[in-house]
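Thread: quick sanity check before group meeting

JM: Hey all, I'm pulling together slides for Thursday and realized we never actually wrote out the predicted structure for the chain we discussed last week. Dropping the sequence here so it's in one place. If anyone has concerns about the input, flag it before I start.
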Amino acid sequence: MSKENLLKNLRLATRGNFFIIDIKNSLENDTNIIEKLAKELELDGLIKLKECTQLEDSLFLSGILKYASK
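JM (edit): ok, ran it. Output follows.
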Protein backbone atom coordinates (compact mmCIF):
# COMPACT_ATOMS: atom_id res chain seq x y z
CA MET A 1 0.00 0.00 0.00
CA SER A 2 1.23 3.48 -0.83
CA LYS A 3 0.52 6.83 0.81
CA GLU A 4 -1.74 7.79 -2.09
CA ASN A 5 -3.79 4.59 -1.78
CA LEU A 6 -4.17 5.07 1.96
CA LEU A 7 -5.32 8.66 1.47
CA LYS A 8 -7.80 7.51 -1.18
CA ASN A 9 -9.20 4.88 1.22
CA LEU A 10 -9.50 7.48 3.97
CA ARG A 11 -11.35 9.85 1.64
CA LEU A 12 -13.81 7.08 0.78
CA ALA A 13 -14.39 6.39 4.50
CA THR A 14 -15.18 9.99 5.45
CA ARG A 15 -18.36 11.37 6.96
CA GLY A 16 -18.04 15.09 6.61
CA ASN A 17 -14.37 15.52 7.32
CA PHE A 18 -14.12 12.72 9.93
CA PHE A 19 -12.93 9.24 9.01
CA ILE A 20 -13.12 5.89 10.72
CA ILE A 21 -11.60 2.91 8.95
CA ASP A 22 -10.66 -0.63 9.90
CA ILE A 23 -7.97 -1.98 7.54
CA LYS A 24 -7.57 -5.76 7.46
CA ASN A 25 -4.00 -7.02 7.30
CA SER A 26 -2.52 -10.33 6.33
CA LEU A 27 0.91 -9.78 7.89
CA GLU A 28 2.19 -8.11 11.05
CA ASN A 29 4.55 -6.09 8.86
CA ASP A 30 1.60 -4.63 6.90
CA THR A 31 0.27 -3.05 10.09
CA ASN A 32 3.57 -1.30 10.76
CA ILE A 33 3.76 -0.01 7.18
CA ILE A 34 0.20 1.35 7.23
CA GLU A 35 0.78 3.00 10.61
CA LYS A 36 3.96 4.62 9.25
CA LEU A 37 2.14 5.84 6.13
CA ALA A 38 -0.66 7.33 8.25
CA LYS A 39 1.89 9.21 10.35
CA GLU A 40 3.54 10.50 7.16
CA LEU A 41 0.17 11.77 5.93
CA GLU A 42 -0.25 13.52 9.27
CA LEU A 43 3.19 15.14 8.95
CA ASP A 44 2.29 16.23 5.40
CA GLY A 45 -0.74 18.03 6.85
CA LEU A 46 -3.33 15.95 4.96
CA ILE A 47 -4.93 14.26 7.99
CA LYS A 48 -5.08 14.58 11.77
CA LEU A 49 -4.98 11.21 13.53
CA LYS A 50 -7.06 10.81 16.67
CA GLU A 51 -6.56 7.09 17.11
CA CYS A 52 -4.34 4.46 15.57
CA THR A 53 -4.95 1.12 17.26
CA GLN A 54 -3.61 -2.28 16.27
CA LEU A 55 -6.30 -4.90 16.68
CA GLU A 56 -5.88 -8.67 16.40
CA ASP A 57 -6.01 -8.84 12.60
CA SER A 58 -6.49 -5.23 11.52
CA LEU A 59 -5.56 -1.62 12.10
CA PHE A 60 -8.18 0.87 13.30
CA LEU A 61 -7.68 4.49 12.23
CA SER A 62 -9.82 7.48 13.11
CA GLY A 63 -9.27 11.17 12.67
CA ILE A 64 -9.95 14.23 10.59
CA LEU A 65 -9.32 14.65 6.87
CA LYS A 66 -8.02 18.13 6.11
CA TYR A 67 -9.59 19.45 2.90
CA ALA A 68 -7.56 22.66 2.70
CA SER A 69 -4.45 20.89 1.42
CA LYS A 70 -3.69 19.30 -1.95
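AS: nice. The first helix runs from residue 3 to 12. The beta strands are 14-15, 18-24, 47-54, 58-65.
JM: adding both to the slides.
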